[in-house]
Design a protein that fits this description.
It is a single chain. The chain has one domain: Leucine-rich repeat, LRR (right-handed beta-alpha superhelix) (Alpha-Beta Horseshoe). Helix content is 5%, strand content 22%. It has one helix spanning 5-15; strands at residues 41-43, 50-51, 65-67, 72-73, 89-91, 98-100, 114-116, 121-124, 138-140, 145-149, 162-164, 169-173, 186-188, 193-195, 208-209. The strands form three sheets. Strands 1-3-5-7-9-11-13-15 form an eight-stranded mixed beta sheet, with helices on one face. A five-stranded parallel beta sheet has the order 6-8-10-12-14, with no helix packed on it. A two-stranded parallel ribbon has the order 2-4. The structure holds 2-acetamido-2-deoxy-beta-D-glucopyranose (5 copies). One 2-acetamido-2-deoxy-beta-D-glucopyranose binds at residues 169, 171, 193. Residues 169, 171, 193 line the site of one 2-acetamido-2-deoxy-beta-D-glucopyranose (NAG). It comes from Nyssa sinensis. One of its GO terms (biological process) is defense response.
């Protein structure tokens, strides 16, 4: 089973627990054990799973990690994910998801620390609600077709350590001084259409490491 490196880094302590062996497949490909109903991690990266990510996940109310990277899920990003209040990590990278990122996804993001939607086919703008997600440490929306400006509040996310928005069609001005923000350690905004003074330094052409 492939586990995303960053997932390991961020949640090594939690990942030590193994998967609940008692799922069966349903429409989604996932079901939690109806006896305990307490699956806390779902790490099914690279399982060639397909279909939509749907309502069945709501049964996993104790889910903390949802990692379905490198599968073949299609359809849009389901806003019901926001109703799983314990979610810390959402990794849906390297699938075939389309549509836009739903505004509701971040409206009440209780304890969300990491989200990756990288390498899908996601369009539209990054929703403003992202700015209210004060627990977010790691955001990766790289290699999609996102467009428009960033939510202005994105630079006020005080917990943010890593932001990868590379290879999209994002635009707008990058404020100066973001390199000194808080705990922000890695920013990758390559292959977009940003402007502003901050973009002039060659450091913007590379992933910035600030430690
Ligand atoms: C994903 O699904 C599409 C459409 O069903 C199929 O053409 C493609 O081969 C699948 N890719 C993988 C990696 O399974
Ligand atoms: C993504 O899905 C579309 C149809 O929804 C399909 O045509 C395409 O081959 C898929 N791409 C991959 C990389 O699986
Ligand atoms: C973002 O996700 C892509 C695809 O999974 C990966 O290649 C890249 O390294 C990730 N970026 C960061 C900063 O982790
Ligand atoms: C992205 O979506 C477009 C339009 O639906 C489609 O033509 C293209 O094959 C998709 N790309 C991938 C990588 O699935
Ligand atoms: C990038 O921005 C410039 C100026 O705003 C605009 O003329 C150009 O069409 C944009 N390019 C893309 C690929 O969005």
């Amino acid at each position: 089973m492939l586990v995303n490196l960053l997932t390991i880094l961020l949640l090594a302590p939690v990942l030590v627990q193994s998967l609940d062996p008692a799922f069966n497949d349903d429409v989604l490909g996932i079901k939690c054990d109806s006896r305990t109903n307490r699956v806390s991690e779902l790490v099914l990266d690279g399982f060639s799973l397909s279909g939509h990510i749907g309502r069945s996940l709501l049964r996993l109310q104790f889910l903390r990690i949802l990692s379905l990277s490198q599968n073949n899920f299609t359809g849009t990003i389901n806003p019901i994910l926001a109703q799983i209040g314990n979610l810390r990590i959402i990794d849906l990278s390297e699938n075939n998801l389309s549509g836009s990122i739903p505004e509701e996804l971040f409206r009440q993001c209780g304890s969300l620390q990491a989200i990756s939607l990288a390498k899908n086919n996601i369009t539209g703008q990054i929703p403003d609600s992202l700015s209210s997600c004060s627990t977010l440490e790691w955001v990766n929306f790289s290699s999609n077709q996102l467009s428009g400006p960033l939510p202005s509040g994105i630079w006020s996310l005080t917990a943010l350590r890593s932001l990868d928005l590379s290879d999209n069609s994002l635009e707008g001005e990058i404020p100066q001084g973001i390199e000194s923000l808080y705990d922000l350690r890695a920013v990758n905004l390559r292959k977009n259409n940003f402007s502003g003074q901050a973009t002039r330094g060659s450091w913007w052409l590379l992933a910035i490491e600030i430690t």
